[in-house]
């Protein structure tokens, strides 16, 4: 059972999202909040697997929620759900360590799927956002720094990192490389340790920064 902490300043939205999530298998909304002011207390009390948060909220907004949550030891996945897909929000949320970013017009079935995906350690981005990532992150002066961070990787670790940057799941990478999913997870763990990335979304950003997709 995946435990979800739901943060949105609109009570009606919270009620609707909770109904959608709990109508699917294996999801329980363990706590709700109208903004992120008490997010760390809620984390420590309820130990959610996924934090599902809006961005624009009074007080502590979703970007700060993402930063606070991902700074915790062994943090839950953060899935951002918002009406705003402005590039500045997307990029800041992903830089802070968000694992997923969805727009509120996402169909209910896709929302349930997204919670399962990020709860399982994978990344989940709206297709429109995914299409814009390479154009944004592969430009600017970060390419040299990104390649420097990737330099310590072994050839196999680099293969895994590039596959993550292309949006492949662990299962897809395992099939392509002829190895087990457990082996892919080991390689991905080493990629994150060597590059300083905190999750697979940040690995993908690093690959895009380096211009490798």
Automatic annotation (TrEMBL):
Response regulatory domain span = 3-119
- Name under which the protein is recorded: DNA-binding response regulator
Segments forming domain HTH luxR-type: 146-211
Q: Which UniProt keywords apply?
A: DNA-binding, Phosphoprotein, Transcription, Transcription regulation
Question: 4-aspartylphosphate: which positions carry it?
Answer: 54
Quote one Gene Ontology molecular function term.
DNA binding
**Organism classification, top ranks?**
Bacteria, Bacillati, Actinomycetota, Actinomycetes, Pseudonocardiales
User: Transmembrane ranges?
Assistant: none
Q: Which organism is it from?
A: Amycolatopsis panacis
What Pfam family is a match for this entry?
Answer: Response_reg
Q: Among the record's GO biological process terms, what is one?
A: phosphorelay signal transduction system
């Amino acid at each position: 059972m995946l435990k979800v902490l739901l943060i949105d300043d609109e009570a009606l939205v919270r009620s609707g999202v909770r109904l959608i999530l709990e109508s699917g298998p294996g999801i329980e909304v363990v706590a709700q909040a109208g903004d992120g002011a008490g997010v760390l207390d809620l984390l420590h009390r309820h130990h959610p697997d996924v934090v599902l948060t809006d961005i624009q909220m009074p007080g502590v907004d979703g970007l700060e929620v993402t930063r606070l949550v991902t700074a915790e030891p062994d943090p839950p996945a953060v899935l951002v759900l918002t009406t705003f897909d402005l590039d500045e929000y997307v990029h800041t949320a992903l830089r802070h360590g968000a694992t997923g970013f969805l727009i509120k017009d996402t169909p209910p079935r896709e929302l349930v799927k997204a919670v399962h995906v990020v709860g399982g350690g994978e990344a989940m981005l709206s297709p429109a956002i995914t299409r814009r990532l390479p154009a944004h992150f592969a430009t600017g002066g970060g390419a040299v720094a990104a390649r420097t961070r990737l330099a310590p990787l072994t050839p196999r670790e680099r293969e895994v990192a590039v596959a993550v940057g292309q949006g492949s799941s662990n299962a897809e990478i395992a099939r392509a490389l002829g190895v087990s999913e457990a082996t892919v997870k080991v390689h991905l763990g080493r990629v994150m340790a060597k590059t300083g990335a905190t999750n697979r979304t940040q690995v993908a950003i690093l690959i895009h920064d380096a211009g490798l997709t």
